[in-house]
Automatic annotation (TrEMBL):
It comes from Mobiluncus porci. Its cofactor is FAD. InterPro entries: UDP-GALP_mutase, UDP-GalPyranose_mutase_C. It comes from the Bacteria. Keywords: FAD, Flavoprotein, Isomerase. GO terms for molecular function: flavin adenine dinucleotide binding; UDP-galactopyranose mutase activity. Residues 150-361 form the UDP-galactopyranose mutase C-terminal domain. Gene3D superfamilies: NAD(P)-binding Rossmann-like Domain. Belongs to the UDP-galactopyranose/dTDP-fucopyranose mutase family. GO terms for cellular component: cytosol. This is UDP-galactopyranose mutase. It is an enzyme of class 5 (isomerase). Its EC number is 5.4.99.9.
């Protein structure tokens, strides 16, 4: 007997499942993949044993106390602190842009105030009435022309396969420039990687007597016991797959970007000396290279000394059926999403959640926080009979 069906075993689905199970409900989770955990899943590379993040690098970080406390119930975290570097024109610079980057780039020894004045003068060309014209004008207004061209123009055009002048200013949420030598990538209070890996963490979340997991099970497979046609209307459903797919794309496809990861085992103990190297030049086809061994310096003794695993990352538009990673959120997408939301509101006791179900980019801590609050506000009152619909 199932009290709640959860479609998708990513961090949103797992958190929801765990909360419901602890509240006494019998929960069934289905996932169409052959493993649980969604995009945060990682597994050891078969040749080297090095933990590889299967769907792209996942770094855990949060300033949310409740989420930090919650995740620590299932895993401890290493003291890993994320740092990123960028290669531009044959030289390596620290990221995000900071005083070290600026002084190295201009071969100078500017103080914070001098660097601030320099960047302001290099942004002065942009007419204030045209700042919001496009990504380029907005970017230059924030970091000045030389830094924009070196660190953002090529990288962004590869990431979006679109010229920065054709991209909206709105995608520049923040191009941080730090006038200190701090090159910590994230600003959050808590940061780290699960000590014994993502697979162990995510599997522990599902390990509860009230939770049953069915892998290789697609909600849209009419033959499945847990198919949409057999469950919706009969059972409460938490759906974390793509919202447009749920409605058979009847209002059109929502736009997504995806990435291709090209894995390679290299015959060296260290290929690039850091976990992530961005490539700012347009003529380098990939956006960045991950070297997974550097995510776990504490495992240096157990990882091989003569082999390493790298992944070159290429970014492109996703076609239907490919892995949807980053919502594009163009005007046409927003219009379609509004209609899908209206349709979703009429589905009987189906809650749309997570990254794909809401068409929002969510970091892991945001997916967990969202599941915790939607469980408390929507699912728990429904399961306890306090509310009649969810
Ligand atoms: P998620 O996508 O993880 O899970 C959805 C699940 O639903 C999948 O397992 C899928 O198979 C399943 N599903 C879909 N349709 C189905 C159907 N019809 N039937 C059955 N199952 C179905 N975050 C962060 O904090 N730090 C980071 O460094 C990164 N890095 C990062 C890199 C890349 C490339 C991406 C794409 C994302 C990140 N993230 C991240 C974000 C992180 O991956 C995200 O927060 C979580 O995956 C969100 O969990 P969800 O449960 O919402 O979705």
């Amino acid at each position: 007997m199932t009290d709640l069906l959860i479609v998708g075993s990513g961090l949103f689905g797992l958190t929801m499942a765990r909360e419901a199970a602890e509240a006494g409900a019998k929960v069934t989770i289905i996932d169409r993949r052959d493993h649980l955990g969604g995009n945060a899943w990682s597994e050891p590379d078969p040749e080297t044993g090095i933990e590889v993040h299967k769907y792209g690098a996942h770094l855990f970080h949060t300033s949310n106390e409740r989420v930090w406390e919650y995740v620590n119930r299932f895993t401890s975290f290493t003291p890993y602190v994320h740092h990123v570097y960028t290669t531009v024109n044959g030289v390596v610079y620290p990221m995000p842009v900071n005083l070290g980057t600026i002084n190295q780039f201009f071969q100078a020894a500017y103080s914070p105030d001098e660097a601030r004045a320099l960047i302001a003068s290099q942004a002065a060309d942009i007419d204030p009435t045209h700042v919001d014209d496009n990504f380029r004008t907005k970017g230059i207004s924030l970091v000045g022309k030389p830094l924009f061209e070196a660190f953002f123009e090529g990288y962004t055009s590869k990431q979006w396969q679109t010229d920065p002048e054709e991209l909206p200013a709105s995608i520049v949420t923040r191009l941080p420039v730090r006038y200190t030598y701090d090159n910590r990538y994230f600003n959050d209070t808590y940061e780290g990687l699960p000590t014994d890996g993502y697979a162990a963490w995510l599997t522990r979340m599902s390990d509860h007597p009230n939770i049953t997991v069915h892998l290789d099970t697609d909600f849209f497979d009419p033959e499945s016991e847990f198919s949409k046609s057999r469950t919706v209307g009969n059972l409460p459903v938490v759906y974390t797959g793509p919202i447009d797919e749920y409605f058979d794309y009847r209002e059109g496809d929502l736009g997504w970007r995806t990435i291709d990861l090209e894995l390679e085992v290299k015959p060296t103990g260290d290929s690039q000396g850091c976990p992530v190297m961005n490539y700012g030049d347009r003529n380098v086809p990939y956006t960045r290279i991950h070297e997974f061994r550097h995510f776990h310096p504490e495992r240096a003794e157990t990882y091989p000394k003569d082999k390493t695993v790298i992944a070159r990352e290429y970014s492109r538009f996703a076609k239907r059926g490919e892995e949807p990673y980053y919502p594009i959120n163009a005007a046409a997408d927003r219009k379609r999403l509004k209609t899908y939301h209206e349709l979703a509101a009429t589905e009987p006791n189906v809650l749309f959640g997570g990254r794909l179900g809401t068409y929002k980019y969510l970091d892991m801590h945001m997916a967990i926080a969202s599941a915790l609050s939607r469980f408390n506000n929507v699912v728990a009152p429904f399961l306890s009979g306090e509310t009649k619909t969810m």
